[in-house]
Design brief:
- With about 575 residues, this protein is of the alpha/beta class.
- It has three domains: about 160 residues, Rossmann fold, CATH 3.40.50; about 100 residues, Formyl transferase, C-terminal domain (Methionyl-tRNA Fmet Formyltransferase, Chain A, domain 2), CATH 3.10.25; about 260 residues, 2-enoyl-CoA Hydratase, Chain A, domain 1.
- Helices cover about 35% and strands about 20% of the residues.
- It is built from 20 helices and 27 strands.
- A six-stranded mixed β-sheet has the order 2-1-3-4-6-7, with helices on both faces.
- A hairpin with a 2-residue loop joins strand 12 and strand 13.
- Helix 4 runs antiparallel to helix 7 and helix 11 packs antiparallel against helix 18.
- Pfam families: ECH_1, Formyl_trans_C, Formyl_trans_N.
Length: about 575
């Protein structure tokens, strides 16, 4: 079918629905619901057979839903209504939740139901849950709704008993540091992540707090700052403490937009003298660290979890240090990643935007990522597996492609392109991407700048294995497969072949040549104050809405590419080298 996605933003769920519907043979276009733009006219112009709203903050006009079927995806179970569904579920400590697809009509969230899928609610942040269990349930519900609509024999079910929850405002989110337990504080912080954050007073000023992780080993007077670690701050609760990774200033009336930053960076000179604690030497459930290393027999696991998937210069350098330490261990297989949310999205645009010299910080950041990718590419004494449990984009995709094998969860979405940020790209992409998918496909992926589903990535050769499992099961599945890989008798011969291949490549064209060419292009962009990158970066970190739907989203795109070309191809160099399982209580 020809399907039009209508959304307030091309967010992670909209991208996943877009990629998965294309994978199943549908022609899919996107229109953003933007102020001053007629959604009615846009739908008339597309003339789709079906309209789907994966994430829409405004009502679909009567002229649209009365003229053609419109399916709205609501992140709540049957009977749930209101704009803060997930926030209420997490803050109340719900253990399971769901997603409902209903047909738009005159009353918000009250249309006839086409499908509803339940899902668990693990103790994670709202954004992590949204990209994980909620996205899995949403996709299952969307696909089931599309199948039922296509068959033409299903009658949607009218809603009966319903509960409309109000917007969860700051009066309910407020933290009482003297009475709220660590568990309560963490729930409130997780329910507000990544937006709107929890408004609070810290160091005598107003801030929005973003992200929360429990700490049980540190104690102090409730509300006081106890320590810092890798850019995060630790704040005492009534019975323990929490780690808060990021802060954001409230926007003053008429002032410039604000954005999230690592907490220590945001506080700057306001931060009182507190100890800066090193990350624990071993994995521990009783404290928080953004990088962890564990070992099971001949397999090492180097996991990392950076807010929003962005990796600043310091984070890249710390991860590189941890990678080198992991490579000093007597293991046969090293698993990089393996966590449930973002794998990586490349350079940290927020830290760059806040830097005194954004061009210099851009240069430092891209070189730090390149150093990390180079270390992975040149590891020849063990097999490296990139375990992509969540979404990845730009340099994060290329970090994964540097590994010997890429294992991807079925629900992950990959965006292997740079041009929407006005960048040429680095991280050895002109070597690793054509090596896996071929030059022509690499050019198409870079030019189209569209999300790629895990199944499509497997078919193209970007990934080597897709694990059809729930978000919470990914790490265990990866661990079992890595142990079997380490035990295979052919692993040693693979290492010999790997070393020989790298030596042959260095003799033909050194990896440093790819890096130098890429960085030359990037340096010119960074140093040009009029390059679109700077304006695009600012718009991205301050969450400015576009004035129009980006052209690359407007054209209907099928499973093998768009119906008409958009933009100029990106020239590269180099040589070529499912169903979801977690659907409880679904109907």
């Amino acid at each position: 079918m020809h399907i039009l996605l209508v959304a307030s933003a091309f967010n992670s769920l909209t991208q996943r629905v877009h990629a998965e519907l294309r994978e199943r043979g549908h022609a899919v276009a996107v229109e953003l619901a933007l102020p001053g733009r007629s959604l009615t006219e846009a739908v008339r112009r597309h003339d789709p057979e079906l309209v789907i709203a994966p994430m829409l903050k405004t009502a679909i006009p009567r002229e649209v839903w009365s003229a053609r079927p419109c399916f709205v995806v609501h992140p709540g179970p049957l009977g749930d209504r209101g704009p803060s569904s997930l926030d209420w579920a997490i803050q109340a400590g719900a253990e399971d939740w769901g997603v409902t697809v209903f047909q738009a009509d005159a009353e918000m969230d009250a249309g006839d139901v086409w499908a509803s899928v339940r899902c668990p609610v693990p103790p994670v942040s709202k954004s992590d849950l949204y990209r994980g269990e909620i996205a899995d349930a949403a996709l299952a519900a969307v696909l089931r709704s599309v199948e039922r609509f296509s068959a033409g024999t299903f009658a949607p079910v009218p809603q009966r008993a319903a509960r409309t929850r109000p917007y969860l405002d700051q009066s309910v989110r407020r933290i009482d540091w003297f009475t709220d337990t660590t568990e309560t504080v963490v729930r409130k912080l997780r329910a507000a992540d990544t937006q709107p954050g929890v408004r609070d007073v810290l160091c005598g000023e107003q801030w929005y707090l973003h992200g929360g992780h429990p700490e049980h080993g540190l104690h102090g007077a409730p509300g006081t700052l106890l320590a810092t670690r890798t850019g995060a701050i630790c704040r005492a609760t009534s019975d323990g403490a929490v780690w808060i990774p990021e802060l954001r200033r409230p926007r003053r009336p008429g002032g410039p937009p604000t954005f999230k930053l690592p907490a220590v960076t945001a506080l700057g000179d306001r931060l009182p003298p507190v100890p800066d604690l090193a990350a624990p030497p071993t994995a521990s459930a009783r404290t928080w660290a953004d990088i962890r290393y564990t070992e099971e027999g001949a397999v090492g696991f180097l996991s990392f979890a950076f807010s929003g998937g962005a990796m600043s210069t310091s984070q890249c350098r710390r991860l590189l240090d941890a990678y080198r330490e992991a490579c000093a261990r007597p293991t046969t297989v090293l698993v990089l990643g393996g966590q449930r949310d973002f794998f990586s999205n490349g350079i940290h645009l927020g830290v760059i935007e806040a830097a005194p010299d954004p061009a210099a910080e851009s240069w430092a950041n891209i070189n730090a990522v390149d150093d990390l990718v180079e270390a992975v590419l040149t590891t020849t004494d063990r097999l490296v597996v990139a375990a992509v449990g969540g979404n990845a984009a730009a340099g994060g995709v290329m970090l994964a492609l540097a590994a010997d094998e890429v294992w991807c969860r079925a629900g992950a979405v990959l965006n292997p392109h740079y041009r929407l940020m006005g960048l040429y790209g680095s991280e050895y992409w002109t070597y690793t991407l054509p090596r896996r998918v071929g030059v022509a496909t690499a050019e198409r992926l870079m030019g189209e700048a569209l999300p790629v589903s895990a199944a499509s990535a497997l078919r193209l050769g970007m990934v080597d294995r897709v694990l059809d499992c729930g978000t919470g099961d990914f790490a265990g599945e990866v661990g079992g497969l890595a142990a079997r890989m380490a035990a295979l008798p052919g692993s040693r011969s693979r290492l010999v072949a790997k070393k020989a291949e790298l030596e042959a490549q260095e003799a033909l064209e050194p990896l440093s040549a790819f890096r130098e060419r890429e960085l030359a292009r990037m340096r010119r962009i960074f140093d040009d104050p009029y390059a679109p990158y700077h304006e695009l970066r600012h718009a991205f970190v301050t969450k400015q809405r576009p004035t129009d739907t980006p052209p690359h989203l407007v054209h209907a795109v099928g499973p093998r590419g768009r119906t008409e070309p958009v933009g100029s191809p990106v020239r590269v160099t180099g040589t070529a080298p499912a169903d979801l399982s977690s659907r409880p209580d679904a109907w």
